[in-house]
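Z., the sequence and structure:
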Amino acid sequence: MLAASTYPLELVQLHQWLQKNPDLAKDQKKLTEKVEKQPWDPSIQALAGYPDLIKRLSSNISWTTNLGNAYLTRPKEVMDTVQRLRVQSGVYRY
């Protein structure tokens, strides 16, 4: 998701494409095959199976763009923050 946030336009394109192809959501293999034929970055293609996430990221494109910019310019700080939040939420423990 972090790498995909560096391609906000492609996230919007994927969201629109998924809306135009709702029948593909029923068949993950077919969805993957069709998405791989699109000219998007592999990080975008990998998110195709998560339509709710795509919708959320594309609906607040300013936030997504800011996340992508932060990840590009300060990847270590972003990853440190992710790990700290995972520990705080109880999702991950050392």
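The chain has a mean pLDDT of 94. The CA atoms of residues 26 and 47 lie 15 Å apart.

Let me know what you think.
H.
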